[in-house]
Design a protein that fits this description.
seven-stranded parallel sheet; alpha/beta; nine-stranded mixed sheet; 25% strand
Amino acid sequence: MDTSFYMELDKKALYSNINYLKNYRGKELLPIIKANAYGHDILQISKALYDFGIKTWATARFSEAISVIEYLKEYSIEDFRILVLESVEDIEIINKYKQICPSVNNIKDLKDFLANKIDSERLSLKIDFGYGRNGIKYEEVDEVKQIVKYNSLKFMGIYSHLFSSSYDDGLELIKKFTELVNSFGKANFQMIHLQNAAGIFNYDCEIVTHLRTGMLMYGLQEAGFYDMELKPVFTGLMGRVASVSYVDELKYIAYEGLDSLNTSTQKIAKIKLGYGDGFLKANLHTVCLINKKEYTVSQVTMDYSFIEVDDRVNVGDPVQIYHRPNEIKAKTGCSMLELLIAISPLRIKRIFKR
């Protein structure tokens, strides 16, 4: 009997969230699949998106995009595009992988792409309105316009980031972005996107053609922006009890003394899940679900965790971790997003439930 853990995913929830978000603002969706698809498995998620008819995605790193391209080759799938948000360091990557659509983060990027005969319809202009990441500075836009006009360029997209925490500042940023896009000519861009997760809920941005989101597509939500229609794609870390011991037979629990236990605890269950799997020590004293009852995680080591249980728990019983995702931040100090990204893709398989 296999007692290893795996991450269970719900493909129906993924597709339901996509349809809901598209209808919410009447826009198409640009899914973000960076950071291993927010911990959900970039390879399986990209294939699921393709099967659902969405063939343009975005990553942060070129390495992420290359991994997806090489994976989908196994299915003879090539008719998709991946917008990469970071600046290119090696122009040969763009020449080799035709599905990669790079961002233009500064004037030098644009000149280099044109000098190397990269089709402008693979490029997206990224505008920096002062949020301190990367992108064409607002004061450099006029020079970019001259290059665009002189070369009669059309682009895959133009985008920025609706970063403001002030609602009025957000409205002002939308106004500036709208004016900028119109000054370039809206028809020169296939995709126009601005809103992050909070921006999708808070603002109706008429100029955009696409909603660029990761968190909401995966049903990951935080206080202040909660929508009951969005369903979590992650449904739990699933495994089984590897062993059970009576406390009076032990001197230690892993590396700790017995005084760390609740005085009423009689049995300890061991599971094959530890911080080597990305199950962080922040999960200490959280609860998991065994046989529909909650039990406390008492110790987290590199390869195993130990749970305080009772006589109803036996070897082989199913265990579910993170069964209450909306409460996890209050107990660990980490958001569900942080915890999912931390889970090792090497040691913990992601599996779509049947």
